């Protein structure tokens, strides 16, 4: 099981090619790459996105929209346990805090890991 922590320790940002791949994946899913940091501070937009790929795994009603960083962290903790762990991605408390606080580069690393994990899981399901 790969962890987001291991990936973020290895590098602090995506390569140009990885940024392009992520941008293409986001545009295919009707997500504006220019507004990532603000949009994804709360888990709800990610839950909606992943519910398209894994409707049985993600219940978007479980993650109400939040405004405060503390409430967003609560959502991220639940999402980490209920969804990300099943995709083989794990966020540390520090990584959740960085995403909730909109630290530059944090959501991109997470989304790239999720993109790879969801693609891998979908290909296993299709076989």
UniProtKB/TrEMBL annotation:
Residues 23-115 form the CH-like domain. GO terms for cellular component: axoneme. InterPro entries: CH_2 (IPR010441), CH_dom_sf (IPR036872), Spermatogenesis_Ciliary_MAP (IPR052111). GO terms for molecular function: microtubule binding. This is CH-like domain-containing protein. Gene3D superfamilies: Calponin-like domain. It comes from Drosophila willistoni (Fruit fly). It comes from the Eukaryota. GO terms for biological process: regulation of cytoskeleton organization.
